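Review form for a predicted model. The reviewer records the input and the model, then writes brief findings.
Reviewer: anonymous (R2)
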Amino acid sequence: MIVKIYFYSNDLFLFSELWFNHFQKINEILDQQWFNVEYIEKGQFALISIFSLFFKVSSGMSLQTFGVLQNIILSILIYWIVRKVSTKDKILIPLLSALIFISAFTLAPVDITLAFKHRKIFTALFIFLPVLIALTKKQHFYSYRKNLIYTFLAILSLSLTNYSVLFIVILPACVLFFIFDTTKKKKLKVIPLVLLVFVMFFTLILQYCLFNHGDFNLNFFLKNSFIEISSFNKIQNLKFPYENIIKYTSVIGTIIIIVNILKNNISIISKLICSIYLVIAGFYHTKYYLIDENLSLLIFAFLTPTVFGIFIVEFFFNNLNWISYKNVNYFALCIILCSTSYLIHYQKDDLSNLKITNETNRQILSAYDNIITNHLPYSYAIINHEKAVEFSKKNHFFINYNELNNEYLIRDSIYHENKNRKDFFKYNPHRNLPNSIFLFETLPAKKNVSRIVFLTSKKQLKKNEHIINVLKSRDREVQLYINTDKLRVYKITNKKNSSNIDDMLFYDKRL
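Model under review:
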């Protein structure tokens, strides 16, 4: 995933209006607000919140990096699917398929400047496809029953993440599984379809019962789920017309299906993946208003390299005997080298033309992540621009620049004069100060970079300098916590070893 991380300096998702909207949704999940008037499924934001807790990063950092995690999982999934189809080469061609997914950005309908934006459909693909493929195996009933439980949980989680995907992807996949799997009895094959229908109705009932803003509008909920306004992709600037790529891949997929049927191939994975591609292509070309083209394009971004990898292993390795096991690796390595060289040469001009976005926003996010993960919640406050107040919810106190200018020095004086009087703050809690305070100063950047969300004005910088000098003259502990050419953060300590978690755990009170 070094390829995707390489484009972090070109990212436009961070601190965009959509980014802040999603950040607010994560805070709503932490408040247990799952159903709201916007009719938006919040399963995706719950996953981001879990990701934040699991990796011990801030909600903002998890939101920014969850898109990368999706790409990592999907590239591994492509590798795994192609590897399961291949009977000879188990490494190189699957690796090539995954490489095309993560690096062929001029051939994929995904805007590289939004590579860090998370996608609901990507979550649906990496949750459902593994359990679907697990069902295709020839297995004992008890193993199949266990996989059915996993399938039910996957479908249920996806219904809370993106309800429309149940119709666009899951339903066709379950029908195709029923058609192609010849190793199981019909009553066993129909169970995934029954589970799907049950989850569809159960989710609607759940939405209706828990919706807390008046009457539940089913029609609006379905339209909002099928047409995702925040999802948009660029296909106009691609090297090849993407319509042609869809047509060529559909032809390849059809050939793979026909050949496998004629040869009575026992493995149904290749037939299943290619058939799903053809179904999505059919939806895409219907131009029906409920079928979101952007959603279909994102599915194509994943399925196209997968079908391409399956085509190579099926026609150059599995079904042709002229390549011996001894020469498989040499032949596969030649294909990888040629493809990689072509991608590098073909995309070098586009790489050089990508604009560098503002580094300041990334430094601000990193600073917030460092402070939030290393300090006890609500033991500290952050002073910043009013637009940054959204970061403070669920984490710490917030002070804007106006409060800093007009009130802080007075509050500081009262606090330190009375901090040893136990009864004073009992009767005057509003006079208390957080144990630590972080003062953010976002410095001006070059004119040729994108907008800075939390820019600190020159007038405010002078006021900050005056306040810091006054605090130092009062013998307050003020240190430069972060200092770069784009961002300065001062730390004002009002009570020692009472905010930083490590200091609180290992502080020896005898010292």
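Findings: Strands lie at 380-384, 397-400, 436-442, 477-483, 487-493.
Further findings: The first helix runs from residue 2 to 6.
Recommendation: see findings above.
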